[in-house]
Write a structure and sequence with these properties.
The chain has about 200 residues and is of the alpha/beta class. It folds into 2 domains: about 1-100, Formyl transferase, N-terminal domain (Rossmann fold, 3-Layer(aba) Sandwich); about 105-200, Formyl transferase, N-terminal domain (Rossmann fold, 3-Layer(aba) Sandwich), CATH 3.40.50.170. The chain contains 7 helices and 9 strands. Helix 1 (about 15-25) packs across helix 7 and helix 6 crosses helix 7 (about 165-190). Bound molecules: glycinamide ribonucleotide.
């Protein structure tokens, strides 16, 4: 069974979608740890309610050592790291030891509206400001480049004339809750390969 760690920073609705998918029997994996960079994240409560080990690795406490602390917590215990609304940047050794074994969900159609400083509601604000007709979400692998790893799954959401950042965020989140568990499932079934900067699905 695929063992995963889920990294979070906020509400954890994506974590909730993964838990639900496991409980329904759609996803054959076990969440070994939930790790947050903020002790106030509601995602931690969601984890504890389900008796999933929950940890806080805050910048305040660990600073530049945060990624190494996370690696220490999960080394040899998990097969895949899932960034589900995790708003810090991983760096250093964890990226080498978990090469092609870290995925992230981003709330836009990468490469649009992505990269450093583009996260959470800021993405949807930028989308509304630009007036694009379509947005969406992306699951991608994580490497040294922020939001730059191979794209695994994307879903499109139409931007409506009456949308503001909050209404768009809600509709994009619905799609996130669909593609993130789906991406984990594809990986758990060995159906994803990476070649020449792209992913291929079996
Ligand atoms: C989600 O929309 C996720 O895509 C985004 O943060 C939100 C977390 O929601 N992540 C990023 O912006 C990463 N660049 P959640 O805590 O309810 O899952």
């Amino acid at each position: 069974m695929l063992r995963i760690a889920v990294l979070v920073s906020g509400g954890g609705s994506n974590l909730g979608a993964i838990i639900e998918s496991i409980e329904k029997g759609d996803l054959n994996c076990s969440i070994e740890a939930v790790i947050s960079d903020k002790d106030s994240a509601y995602a931690l409560t969601r984890a504890r309610e389900k008796n999933i080990p929950a940890f806080v690795v805050s910048k305040k406490e660990f600073g530049a050592e945060s990624s190494n602390r996370i690696l220490e917590l999960i080394k040899d215990k998990v097969d895949l790291i899932v960034l589900a609304g995790y708003l810090s940047i991983l760096n250093g050794e964890i990226l080498r030891q978990f090469k092609n074994k870290i995925i992230n969900i981003h709330p836009s159609l990468i490469p649009s509206f992505s990269g450093a400083g583009m996260y959470g509601i800021k993405v949807h604000e930028a989308v509304i400001k630009k007036g694009v007709r379509y947005s969406g979400c992306t699951v991608h692998f994580v490497n040294e480049e922020v939001d730059g790893g191979e794209i695994l799954l994307q879903e499109v959401v139409q931007v409506l004339q009456e949308d503001d950042a909050a209404t768009l965020q809600r509709r994009v989140l619905e799609k996130e809750h669909y593609i993130l568990p789906k991406a984990i499932k594809l990986i758990s079934e060995g159906k994803v390969t990476i070649k020449d900067g792209k992913t291929f699905l079996l």
